[in-house]
Amino acid sequence: MSGQRQKIFRFIYWSGLVFCLVALCSGVGCSNGILRTKSDLRKGWVCDKEADEAMQRQDHETGILLHERFLAKEPTNGLAWYHLGYAYGQTGDHLKEVLHYEKAIALGFKGDHVFFNLGMAYGELNQIEKACDAFKKAIALNPDNADNHFGLAMAYQRSSIDKLAEEAFLKAIEIDPGHVGARLYLSMLYTDMGDLQRARKHLHKILEIDPTHTAARMFLEKIEQE
After folding, report:
1. Judgement on whether residues 221 and 121 belong to the same structural domain of the protein
2. In this structure, are 17 and 45 located in the same domain?
């Protein structure tokens, strides 16, 4: 890793609170993923109402307890296994999160959002190859979802596969030009590559979209000092 990359990434980790992954683009936390509670009637899966209500009010411990009780009665309900995995992810237990997502997938619950969440969870466990595989499956199911490409780009960036990361970030932006998360992390990638002109371009675009975006402003100020 070059000295320039080490310096920029020290800044990123120092201000980690403003560079939190998906929170910048879709309103969920760094590893929170996406919760979808809609029933899957094709397989006859309806989750427990009280368990889902606990999750919606962010009472994750109660959500775990109620989903586990529900699954004791309906162990083949892939939707409930997915919700339980999400609940564990919210508590920071990403090993259990992955296990429950994989269980849901094995039972036939295979929406792109479960693979996106699985990729996020593998990223938290620093299992980047598995994260990439999960994001690729999410893209195969829903290639028009910008977040799926963004997740893959982040995994590539973490592995220092710069060209593939750039392509995936640009695809996310092509699908959703207002995807500030993709623009922000792409600006970091360009900075690490020494291309400050393109980094500034995306940071300025973020500030056009959202003039109050603190992360973009801070990072722009930082690279202007280089």
Report:
1. yes
2. no
Could you list the residue range(s) of the whole structural domain that residue 208 is in? 1-32+112-226
147: left (phi over 0), alpha (psi -120 to 50) or beta: alpha
C-alpha dihedral (181, 182, 184, 187), degrees to nearest 10: 170
Q: Please tell me whether residues 147 and 50 are part of one structural domain.
A: no
Asked whether 203 and 216 are in contact (CB, 8 A), the reply is yes
Same domain, 58 and 78: yes
Per-residue model confidence as pLDDT tens digits over 63-74: 999 999 999 999
Q: What is the pLDDT of residue 13?
A: 35
**Which has the higher per-residue pLDDT, 159 or 41?**
159
Nearest to 32 by CA among 103, 106, 97, 105: 97
Cβ atoms of 208 and 184 within 8 Å: the answer is no
As given in the structure block, the two tokens for residue 151 are 């997740």
CB 213 within 8 A of CB 180: yes
Q: Is 105 exposed, middle or buried (0-12, 13-18, 19+ CB in 10 A)?
A: buried
The token pair that represents 60 in the structure block: 């994750």
**Residue 45 sits in the same domain as residue 142:** no
Taking only the tens place, the pLDDT of each residue in 91-102 is 999 999 999 999
8 Å CB contact between 154 and 21: yes
Residue whose pair of structure tokens reads 């893959």 in the numeric block: 152
Q: Are 97 and 85 in contact (CB under 8 A)?
A: yes
